[in-house]
Amino acid sequence: MTKLPSLSAIGSCLLLILCMTACSGAGVRASLDRIESYISDNPGKAIEDLDSLGGKNIYGKKNRAHYALLYSMALDKSQIHTTDTSIIASAASYYEDTDDALHKAMSYYYLSKVYMNADDFDNAVPSITKAALYSESLEFPYLNGRIAYFTGLIYEKYEEYEEAVREYEEAVSHFLEAHNDRTAADAYCALSRVCMKMGDIGKSSGYAAEELRAAERIRDTSLIIHAYQDMAMIRTKEGDYKGAIGYLQKASGKYCGGEIPPSFYPVLSRIHLSSGNTGRSRMYAEAMLDDPDAARSPDTYGLLYKIERSAGDYRKSNDYLVRYHHLRDSLENIIYDRSIYYAERKYRNEELRSIISHKDSQLKNR
């Protein structure tokens, strides 16, 4: 007869398993805490270390939620714009039922960003609203600044510019409190951009100047050059084309060895287009096509379309417009411009006609 193990032996085995699981859980918690300590400075290494832990091998709801939050943070900070909400949504669901206000706010903040990556505003808005609610009690100005900044982006997308300005100004306040001039420069840039859209050139110029000062405080060349480009575009809006070119020349002389970097081409093209010099505008816009990223951007072809339309070359403007819409990858996002009809009458571009026909049918069915 087979001798069965005693109850005491079974109990000992179970106790050993429980001890091993507990020790393993404690080790994972320590690893996650260590990764969180450097995730902002080195998100690439964070992803590697999180992958080495293996999500499926992490036990315990708290550890799994922490892992999901950190993984989402690392992807975002590495400029990997995922649209898969399943990972971060699991973290938000767990923290929702806890008293951990910090991780609760962070999880909803990153959840809202993933929704925005997918252009899902309906879900992004309640998520960022929850993030703001849970962060109110926290003395964490940097996080509060990020939440306010992202809320401003959503308002700007909805063209609610006054609300966007309010949120961006709150973001600036938090970033300055956190002594983070880099993100403060980003917020000043956003304020300048929105005020430009509102037609308030004076305020736009003031915020751009603050953007430049913040960038100069941390001696970040790329941010400084971007601020000079913003100032140049403001001067262009004011009709001061000489002043606009002057800002770019100053930036080139101080930070680019007197050369004109490719990053200046879009601004220079727009300056010359606004001043009526379509030849030089075309030269800089076509040079942008040498950059693979610019060649895949619909904004590049939108600019080329405007240049050729201004020059009266409707065949080329049609071709660029079609390319622009192809890259936008959705007929739902077509900018309905009546000037398309004029271009279509000049040259019967079948592809463009199909776009117009599709848009017309949408309008008639409303």
Question: What would your notes on this structure say?
Answer:
By secondary structure, the protein is mainly α. The chain has helices at 7-38, 43-53, 61-77, 86-96, 101-117, 121-135, 141-157, 161-177, 181-198, 201-217, 221-237, 241-255, 265-275, 278-288, 292-295, 298-311, 314-328, 339-346, 350-364. Helix 9 (181-198) runs antiparallel to helix 10, helix 11 runs antiparallel to helix 12 (241-255) and helix 13 (265-275) packs parallel to helix 16.
Distance between termini? 83 Å
Summarize the biggest pleated sheet: none
Shape summary: elongated
Strand content: under 5%
**Number of separate strands:** 0
Order of helices and strands: HHHHHHHHHHHHHHHHHHH
Percent of residues in helices comes to over 70%
With helices defined by DSSP (H or I, 4 residues minimum), what is the helix count? Answer: 19
Structural class: mainly alpha
List low-confidence stretches.
Answer: 11-24, 330-353
Based on CA atoms alone, the radius of gyration comes out at 27 Å
Mean pLDDT: 83
